[in-house]
Amino acid sequence: INQYIVLDKPFNLNSLIRPTIRAIITGITVLVVAVPEGLPLAVTISLAYAVKKMLLDNNLVRHLNACETMGNATTICTDKTGTLTLNQMKVTTCYINGKFYDDSTLVSAIGEIGSELKSLVQHAISVNTNYVSKMDESGKQCGNKTECALLEFVQHLDGNYEQIRQQYPSSSLLNVRTFNSSRKSMSTCVRHGNNKSVRMYCKGAAEVVVAQCKFVAENERRELSDEDKQRLLTEVIEPMASNGLRTVCVAYKDMIEEEEEERTDWTDETQLTLLCICGIQDPLRPEVREAIRTCKKAGIVVRMITGDNLHTARSIAISSGIIDPCDSCLVIDAAQFNRLIRDDQGRVTQDRIDQVWPRLRVLARSSPDDKHTLVKHIIESKLSKSREVVAVTGDGTNDGPALKEADVGFSMGIQGTDVAKEACDIILTDDNFSSIVKAVLWGRNVYDSIAKFLQFQLTVILVSVSCAFFGAIALGESPLRAVQMLWVNLIMDSLVSLALITEPVDRRLLDRKPMGRQTPLISRVMLKNIISQAIYQLAVMLGILFAGPALFGLETSGADDLKKPSQHFTMIFNTFVLMTLFNEINSRKLNDECNVFKGLLSSPMFCFLWILTLVLQVNTLNFRLNHIFFF
Hints:
Mean pLDDT: 86
Low-confidence stretches: 1-7, 558-562, 624-631
Largest sheet: 9 strands, mixed
Oligomer: single chain
Distance between the termini: 41 Å
Number of helices: 22
């Protein structure tokens, strides 16, 4: 056998195992670098940072993903009372005893109204309101603001609602039908006179209650004809509503209790006697008009969904800037809305609602079911290519389904119920619409922060993997060592993500249109930036790899001495880190902007972290740690 086997060198197992292990280590390292595992870290840090900052802007975020989603919102369906308005109600106009009284002449009404009519109005309001609603010692409204405005009106008529409530404690009330968004009224039954006599007090939406009235209490109680009702609608209710006033009608009815109590119809709100119609003013928030103008500029459509009268809703929508008087948009009530969106069997169809919602701006006299239906079908609609992203505000218990259905649900922190807060994604601690605009701004900032990091990280991955691949083909092993690539991965994933997401918010983010639901995260401009920067960096590194020794007079690093530390590979590594470091500045801009240094000094955290990264890299040379990278 020895005649045919000639061993030039003794067989060495290490010469086979060590290159294999080094190849496996390098392959695993390239795989680690190729996967942007720092992206979840960057996203989490960006969202957490935004949540902290949004809290200062009166946005309490309950679900982190709502931050980024809000940045792409295309539609905001908002309430009116307390969100667009101050929710500081006051009776400024009243129709009583057949006459109009405004804010300036309301004082004269005290002497002109008879004592019997005045007492009826005082009792009807004091008893038929939630006893939790009241005015404190300083005059602040506590409880339902509409009811507080009516109680303040009772005081204006020289009445004392607390004394009246003491005469009718809550335990003595025979029946209470609380306000219902579909019925639009509230009624309370109490004993009056003898044991069998019952008086029902009723209040609610003016046009709804007036339709149920048969009499009117003026100097003398007289019958109310259909012509009288139409006159009240056109000459009293509509002018009040057109001035942005909420119209509330107060009425009563006397009944006889049946011998069998279960036979008494406590819900029969007909045959009523009209006492007065109050116009309640809720001033518009001073900052709302500018906030809605900003939303329009940002490409966001604001739709108002309210339970108020159609004329009141239109007036507020015009005052706030949701609609212009010359717009061809839809301003409809819930009855017309349901006629338009339902087929002959009464079912809502997507085709029908697609013909309504793009032009719809105001939905009046709506119920929570109407709000949920509108939100659900806007989200499901495929009319727009990028699909709609819908945000909704709500404060009531019945608003829960709409808040859950929406992409982002906003609950009111002051007036909102616990059910609404539990169903929402973000709580507005000040109940102010302008805070929603700040949420949009922070949402777009989060979106851009993630895009900036992704643009930077993909460039690093593309360059490092390509350099390792081409170097391995030419030299048999990657010029970037495993520890070197892990070092780059460490400092770039952590420090760069912090630097890019802590940049100050730019108000110019609200000047662009929303991205939409199906817009790709990596835009064409980002792809161009990634490819061009990768080509540049790769050309420089491969140039140093193959022509570096000749250009700079460096010792050649061939396939036989790859294990030895060398100036050649050290230069490649440091060049890669420095180019990557300067590309971090380029990554701050996602669009075709020539001046990448613009606004750099306004971000002290970015500057600090950039310098820190540079210092850490330089220290690897000063402390002569390069030999570790070539071990």
